[in-house]
């Protein structure tokens, strides 16, 4: 008999699909996964794609679970939590929120109080087993539950705990939002290369493979990224010209500014959403 936990997702959007897809790819059983959302058409396509159980009833979904993953937008989280609170207060699963900004204490209050709760900040590359997630547990979470949620997120990438919840703002601005920063870089490189005559498809493939190769190399190398960069910059060559153009154009400052904008927004969202109580 299987002893793996039953996991229920409330919300069936981009992030829930990415996590479910990655979990199944790594060997989790579809029969142990439930998903709920309001749109039955959307749920049917999730069922077809993944073979998971579906329902439009969040309470029914939560009732099945050892672990409930709250995967709705922060703005609808309060209504969802208040609705399922009577069920989870009775069954006492481990609650996991992947919402940006929303603090554990706020979520716990909406859930009726005293719940074991883990906040996770995942990212969409979870879909291909290359996710990066920061995790924080409140003081109700037992070691066994920590291990259980860690095994879910480490099955779809890297899962790293933070002791201080406020660090999740910094994680959100780094790895939560981060895939979009690199997609922007891919778009920009593709545009620049096609403008010089490379067919779009070729430019995209070369850019993607270059990004994947650079990431893989940075992950495996004993050198820091600065050294790896210098290794590409032949004196008087092409890369040096490009890197100086980035530096002179203020790329580092711009990255800091963009990172801080995401970081600050995460903090603002916490305050706005806590005020909804
Ligand atoms: N996208 C990302 O890269 C990341 C997102 N996150 C967090 O993940 C969460 C989800 O984001 P994302 O997946 O992008 O959002 P989506 O908009 O793609 O998905 C939201 C899902 O919630 C469902 N939903 C809406 N209202 C309810 C309700 N009352 N009960 C149950 N389900 C409901 C929607 O239903 P329907 O399908 O019927 O429309 C949809 O399936 C957010 O809190 C976000 O902060 C965290 C890290 C990264
Ligand atoms: O943009 C957002 O708010 C969410 C959180 C991190 C990635 N997407």
UniProtKB/TrEMBL annotation:
InterPro entries: 6-PGluconate_DH-like_C_sf (IPR008927), NAD(P)-bd_dom_sf (IPR036291), P5C_Rdtase_cat_N (IPR028939), P5CR_dimer (IPR029036), Pyrroline-COOH_reductase (IPR000304). GO terms for biological process: L-proline biosynthetic process. NADP(+) binds at residues 10-15, 71-74. The keyword Cytoplasm applies. Residues 6-101 form the Pyrroline-5-carboxylate reductase catalytic N-terminal domain. Its EC number is 1.5.1.2. Pathway: Amino-acid biosynthesis; L-proline biosynthesis; L-proline from L-glutamate 5-semialdehyde: step 1/1. Keywords: Amino-acid biosynthesis, Cytoplasm, NADP, Oxidoreductase, Proline biosynthesis. It comes from the Bacteria. It is found in: Cytoplasm. One of its GO terms (cellular component) is cytoplasm. Belongs to the pyrroline-5-carboxylate reductase family. HAMAP family: P5C_reductase. This is Pyrroline-5-carboxylate reductase. The lineage of its organism: Bacteria, Pseudomonadati, Pseudomonadota, Gammaproteobacteria, Pseudomonadales. The gene is proC.
